[in-house]
Amino acid sequence: MNSASRDDRLPRYQRLRDDLAARINRNEWRPGEPIPSEAELGAHYGVAIGTVRKAIDQLVADAVLERQQGRGTFVRRARFNSSLFRFFRFQSESGERRVPQSRIIRRRSVPATSAVASALRIPVGEPVISLSRLRLIDDVPLLAEEIWLQQSRFAKILEIDTAEFGDLLYPLYEERCGEVVVSAEEILTVETANEMQARLLRLEAHAPLIVIERLALDLERRPIEWRRSRGPADRFRYHAEIR
Amino acid sequence: MNSASRDDRLPRYQRLRDDLAARINRNEWRPGEPIPSEAELGAHYGVAIGTVRKAIDQLVADAVLERQQGRGTFVRRARFNSSLFRFFRFQSESGERRVPQSRIIRRRSVPATSAVASALRIPVGEPVISLSRLRLIDDVPLLAEEIWLQQSRFAKILEIDTAEFGDLLYPLYEERCGEVVVSAEEILTVETANEMQARLLRLEAHAPLIVIERLALDLERRPIEWRRSRGPADRFRYHAEIR
DNA sequence: AAGTGGTCTAGACCACAGC
DNA sequence: CTGTGGTCTAGACCACTTC
Predict the structure, then answer these.
(1) Can you give the residue ranges of every domain in chain A?
(2) Would you call B237 and A182 a contact, using CB atoms and an 8 Å cutoff?
């Protein structure tokens, strides 16, 4: 249990939620696997089943767990095909949702600039992994991305051959580093392309670019990755729900 | 109760939620006022207090109600200053969040085009109210908006002097028509200004514009309003959370 | 002190999945 | 048939607000 007793002032269902979240993060149950039944968890933690339900409710709302009546409660596999990828509507007016091809252009270790440090909530100068990649559909460049990762949590990323990265990074983070992206915050702005960006994206200079800054968070709401993506504004289409 | 017994197959807390939502929509309790206590509601509807809590939980999650421990549960007043207005960050890099000034340019009744009809989920040709307005900060144009409303629900909007509309429409909808906006879906794209838009927004022709299409929904998820807003892309800044 | 929402319990019964 | 989650109940105690 350990961390479940972190803060006695918090209600039990909160501490239970946090403990379950940590255990899932620790890969105690793998995606697709069921966690113990509500009754078992209640017995194990010494709380009523209603309290267990309330804790699980939250993780279901966070899309971390999935209930299946009569079967059990399961760790969700693949949080990668849904809303987090929304801005790939970026171009596919033409129809279906395809995963863009990915080409890593550069990978290096650098000290965190103040902007990166404040986004990732780490000290300035701390080593971070910096990735540059280009995303394409049908070999047409769609997005130029700069990506920053805290090196201490993602050291493995420096070891893998970039050719083996695949087209999606989040599954890589999960498989190689045990880091799971569950939510994100995005800020959208528009700027004009400089010469390098124009060349990379095969646009004319000064063409309008959409800029998407995204901070990806794990299920304990700690920053995992910060990225800045740029793509041609005229092919952009972004869907959002407001509550 | 009436509508609470609409569908016996639904769980009680769902039917209770719907009934409370309808009563709030009917202005049975005004914004800022408390609804009856959980115990009272339980007695009135003949359900356990836990069931009442579950129904209220949902309305709290929808930002329709607000709990205050020791005081009661209140109908939220003014859902107008929070996330629904996010894109007014549109320009105020300079600091605080201000409500742009609003100038109604045109108001008329027209038959719904197929696009408007499908957005508002009404038959093509049904009369709708069409508004054009300009929004400004410090007399600088910021957004040019086209707005469509189902005329049968918003007939009063045709009667009020447009000079008395004020700077915000949603409070107007609520006060005059009893229609409350609780959530919305937005689609963002970028296009270039035509001559009329450029003149209106005081931009040069072909300047990039951000286009925000918004469908506003009431707490029963029925479409209330559809609008298309255009503003200078270089002053655009949009924040979104993804889950 | 009285009334409100917040937490937690213990148990009943139902609907569904899987053997 | 057994085990799972889904709904619902009735009541205890706590924390907070108001008088």
Answers:
(1) 2-75, 83-235
(2) no
Contacts of B11 (CB under 8 A, 6+ apart): none
The verdict on a CB contact (< 8 Å) between A233 and B190 is yes
Architecture of the domain made up of B83-235? 3-Layer(aba) Sandwich (3.40)
Q: CA A183, A172, A138, A210 torsion: positive or negative?
A: positive
- What is the model's pLDDT at position B2? 44
Q: SS3 of A29, please?
A: coil
Residue pLDDT, tens place only, B116-165: 999 999 999 999 999 999 998 888 898 999 999 999 999 999 999 988 89
Q: Which CATH number fits domain A2-75: 3.20.20.140, 1.10.10.10, 3.30.9.10, 3.30.70.580?
A: 1.10.10.10
Give pLDDT, residue B4.
Answer: 39
Strands A237-242 and B183-192 come out as antiparallel
Residue A87 has pLDDT above 90, yes or no: no
Selecting from A186, A189, A239 the residue whose C-beta is nearest the C-beta of B187 gives A239
Helix pair A38-45, A12-25: axis angle to 10 deg? 110
Q: How far is A194 from A172, CA to CA, in rounded Å? A: 31
* Closest residue, CA to C1' of C18: A71
Contacts with A208 from chain B: Cβ below 8 Å? 190, 208, 233
- In this complex, the residue with its CA at the shortest distance from the C1' of nucleotide C5 is B69
Say what the pLDDT of residue A5 is.
Answer: 43
Nearest residue of A to residue B216 by CA position? A242
Q: Give the predicted TM-score (pTM) of the model.
A: 0.83
Q: How far is B159 from chain A (nearest CA, A)?
A: 30
Mean pLDDT in residue range B87-104: 67
